[in-house]
Amino acid sequence: MELVSVIVPIYNAEIHLNDCIESIVNQTHENLEIILVDDGSCDQSGAICDAFAEKDNRIIVHHLKNGGVARARNYGIECARGKFIVFSDSDDRMERDFIERAVVDIQGVDYVSCAFNTTNDNGEKHVIDYMDHFEVEVTYNEYLECMLDYQAGAYWGANWGKLYRSKLIQEHEIRFESGVAFAEDFRFNLEYLKYVNGIALIHVPVYNYRVDTDDSLSKKKRDIEQYWREYLELYHRYIELYSAHGILEQFQNKLSEFLVGAYVSIIKEGVYNGSLKWANATSMCKKITASPEIEHAVSFYRSMEGRANWYARLISHHKGQLIAFMLLFAKKFRSLTINKCWEK
Fold first, then answer.
1. Is the pTM of this model over 0.70?
2. Which of 100, 217, 277, 282 lies in disulfide reach of 29, CB 3.0 to 4.6 Å?
C-alpha cells in the first residue's frame, strides 16, 4: 500500500476541524502521512491537532507563526514523504474511500480529479461533476477544453479533491504563491498540469466542500484593478499550459472568451459589492480595457457565440462601460422593486 501525504493548512478552524481530521484518519487507505500545519491559530485548533496526534502516530503537527495559507501548504509539501499528495481544507470532509479510489485510478496517469459535494450549515448538498459525460481517463484536449468552459471553477481550480504525484511537484519545484488574492490554488494546478502524462476522473463525489453561507459576493470588496491584474496573470498561465501541450492555436478562441468572461465577472462583482458606481464606471472600465490582452481577445469576437460575442463587440468598440451601466441599472431596479414590496 503506497504512502500518501495528506496536507491540511489550518487557521482558526476549531468549529469543523474535528470532522475534517476524523474523515482523514478513517480513510480505507490506511498508509497515510497526515501533515497538519497550524498557521498560528488563535483558537483551539492547535490543541485539537495535538490531541489527534497523541492518538494516531500517522499525524504530524507543525505549529507555525501566521504566514498565510500558501506558506502553510508549501511547508507541508517540504515535509511530505509520500509518493502521492492530497490537500484538504480544514473545514471540509472526505468520504472514507476517497484516497483509496484515487490511488487506484492514478496508476498509469499523473493526476486525479474528483467529483465533490458542496455543503453548508443549512444541510443543503449539491453534487459537482462537470465532466460526468466522460470515462475515467480523459485526454488533455478533453480536460483542458472543458476547463475553459467554466470561469476558474473549483472543479479545476481547487487543490482539494485531487491526487498529485509528489515526484512531479518536487522535480519541477511547483509551489503555492503568497500574496495572491485570487486563485492561488488554480495557479498551482495550471503549473502542475504542464507536466502530467495522463488524467483520471472520479465521478463519485468523494469530497465534501463546505460553502460559507455568510461569505456572499456582496460582502467582499476586492480591489477591482488588482482583481483584473490577477485575472490577466491567470490568462497568461493558461497560455503557458496550452502552449506546453502544443494546443494553444486550437483553443485560442476559447481562451479569448475566457478573458472576456473575466472582464464581465469583475465588473459584475464591482457593481454588486458597491466598489463600482455610476461615477467611476467609465474610468474604471477604460483602465481595464487598456490592456493589450483584452484588445487581442476581443478581436476574436466573430468566433464567439451568445453573450460572449455581444460583450466582445462592445469592448472592441470601446463601449465596455455600457455593461457596467446595465448592471448598475439592474441593481437599482431590483432595489426599487424590493422596497415597493416592503411598502405593500
1. yes
2. 100
